[in-house]
Amino acid sequence: MRKEKTIDRFLSHLGTCKVKTKSRWNRYAFNTESAVSYFSNLSIRDKKLVVKNDLWNKYPSYTCSISNPNIFGPLIEQMVRYISDSNKEDFDIILKNSVGLFACAALDSSYGKERVKAAKRLSKAKDVRVRRRCANIVPARYLTNMSNDRSESVRSIVIKRVGIDNCSDRFLGDKSGWIKSHAILHCDISSFDYKDILEANIEELSKINDEWRGWSKRRIVNNILRKIPIEELLYYMNTVNFSSGTEEIINRRLSGYKQDTGNQL
Hints:
It is built from 16 helices and 2 strands.
């Protein structure tokens, strides 16, 4: 009960911080100092109740919608930034307890060891925006667990930090077609059952008429065709019709094969 009353009163006060503008892009400006003053006068318990409320998970950082009541994203970010400069005790409460948009703002306004410590705490947060920030901050040993994150964008950050050549085998079965095709390109062809993957994707592509829908499968096929032994490539000549890119890969590889055999003769 106290939790609901605390957040309701907080939101009610944020509503009084709105200042209408004549801008066609920004409906409101906000009185940041008023919001900061209200927060600083709360008890420690109520401050924690405010910043760890699930409301902030997926709360928009900005909205252009006239009908959307969740308009306080810019004010939350301004407020946290202000507190980070003016009140270390309150900022520590936010950094150590916040979720969602509050946590995003706290990570963006902190530095060094305290930022790393907060990122460790938040590496499994519900809000993907928070996890994306954490993937860029946490020590390398945390990236193994984050490589299994349900969000493709988080996994992509992990790959960028580690380097795809160092972790390609981990992502061969990734549910994202883009990540999986990227992993295949950088992985040793002998380290996975490429024939099953190739034939499964060829079969699925044969049933797809929409070029856009099949782009990831086409990329997987092309990346495998780049790497398989040249003798096996001859068995997949029927794939040239999948795209101009597929045809180009096959023609280039076969032209090199013909030159080699011609020189041997």
